[in-house]
Amino acid sequence: MPDIRDHTAPRVRWGLIDAALSAVAPRSAARRYAARVAISNLRRDYDAAGRGRGTSGWSSRGTAADAEIAADGPLLRHRMRDLVRNNPMAAQAVQVLVNNIVGTGIRPRAATGDAALNRQVDALWKRWAEGCDQHGHTDFHGILGLAVREMIEGGDVFAIRRNVRATGSRDVPLRIELREADHLDAARFDSRSDGSRISQGIEYDRSGRRVAYWMFSDHPGDTAPVFSRRLESSRLPADRVAHLFERQRVQSRGVPWGTPAMRAIRDVDDWQQAELVRKRTEACLVGIVFGADEDQQSIAPVVEDASGNRIEQFEPGLIAYARGGKDIKFNQPASTAGVYEWHRVQLHIIAAGFRVPYALMTGDLSQTSFSSSRVGLNEFRRMVEQLQWQTVIPMFCAPIWRWFVDAAVMVGLLPEGVEIPVEWGPPKFESVNPLQDAQADLLEVRAGFSTLPQQIARRGYDPDEVLAEWAGFAKKSDAAGLIFDSDPRRVTKGGLVQTTDPTSPPACEDK
Fold first, then answer.
1. Of residues 282 and 268, more confidently modeled
2. Which stretches does the entry tag as region Disordered (predicted)?
């Protein structure tokens, strides 16, 4: 009969004293044993912290996050970049994250409370953002997209403030240079008598705040000649550097996002290669002839080297000859039942390691329904919003906005001594059901849960620009004598012509 006892229950040994006491005082022996069991329950620990055969191969360390990153960070970064270059699943997972976190850009709007000043600041930002790239390749939104990609793929990225000479009277003398994580001199450590220190190339004051970064001007992995590169790191003040990385512990640097999935990706790659070789081998070998003499002419091609030795090879339609017997056995390809299910499970593991939905990473929608896809996307979007507002905006966008304002004030393009706060508008998530979502947004505005500018900003547009464009288009429509269903001044929500002008003040009623 199988043992159905609970093996997780505490096992308290029945000792000699218990046995002796039970012979003369059974009740006292029972109470004593019950107390011992209760004490054993109080002393129980977590099962995952147990030490035994089940956890004998579980190696864990109590090291700090910075110590782990210093030891393994560079290798993780190199391996993740290799996977993104060569593995389609890793490349797609990174692209999905960048598309959803950045999209077409996280756009700022000045929020000073002064409409005229807001328009001035926004126009100045728009002009500056078009050419803010130090390398001249893209605009601010392109820099942001590349920075987020570097954070996901390499763990962290640095934006460097470059003060330049203004070429025009309306130009802000500021450029942004991106540097990969490799530029940081992670081998530089120092402890000073005043309490300041340098750890992994980051300099801290005695209170633990960052004051400088020690960075290489040229990429250490560049293939340019050594004599043309600077191999010594230089000190950059912290107010000139924006360091973007995700904090998962109390740490100073980040790690690639796909780190939990790297082993799984590699294993799947190896399995796919082995499976492909096996299939090719099975397709090459047709059969084996037993009892072939050495001088028997083979119908299969024979390849010999310069010494007359036969060279083993496999090619389509090959028939092999073996000694003994007179028989032929044809090759029977092995069954591949369950391979698809196993492969799909592995891809689910990889998607979980990258924190992206399986359907978005693989494009496989066969296992999803409309409701399940919306539930999965909602959770993914919560993660994206959390990252936008708690990592990307405060660690990258906000410092660059401060640099922009300071540079504009320095050359007199903005008034001095006036605080210029900003509101950021992340890109809008594409709607799975546009009609229902639009109706929900409209109800939120009408109920007062949100404002119309907030809804416009969620879609990636500037509310002031939209309002100005609407006003200009309405004037042109009135001048041309045109009435559109989208004009609430002339047409009701139900599509009927307005009997009165909704913009006119209500008539006073006689009391």
1. 268
2. 492-511
